[in-house]
Amino acid sequence: MSHPDARHPAPARAPDCRTGLDLHRSAGAAGWARSRSPAGSACPPPPCTRCWCVAGSTAWPGSTGSPASRYEHDHPGALSHVDVAKFGNVPGGGGHRFVGRAQGDRNRAATPDKPRNSYRNPKIVTAFVHTVLDDQSRVAYAEIHADETAVTATAVLRRAVTWFATRGVTIERVLSPPG
């Protein structure tokens, strides 16, 4: 091999690379192609887009072509979403990803009021954010806890219902993820 780039068999330019304007002409009335590639664009859409548009399709494979079903509620409290998110706690002063490894280790070692492991380093555990979100108004109630047990989740939901009630919102239905 005489040149290091001789190993790459891919051409520098695709032979059927067309501009956005050419794609418009070949796609015909395909609205999806028109919305994704502006006319006269020097940059064609991704190859998969080109294949679907040339074939005359306006939708991705597996889609029914019908719009997604949406639901709307006319008043706050008609539906509330409940979820739990898991986050790693960050030591006081910042973690190693923000301040660097050496300073992050010093911040971690100086974190007060944390249980210690067998090497006498503080255990930086995770926190669970329990959230109750009203679907219509998008008002949220959240609490941070050390676990995500059913007892904690139901206690958070009870306090959230009380919190929403003090603001004049009566929770009618609750939607939670499986698990």
UniProtKB/TrEMBL annotation:
UniProt name for this protein: Transposase
Annotated Basic and acidic residues bias: 103-116
Domain of life: Bacteria
Region (Disordered): 1-20, 92-119
Lineage of the species this protein comes from: Bacteria, Bacillati, Actinomycetota, Actinomycetes, Pseudonocardiales
Origin species: Amycolatopsis tucumanensis
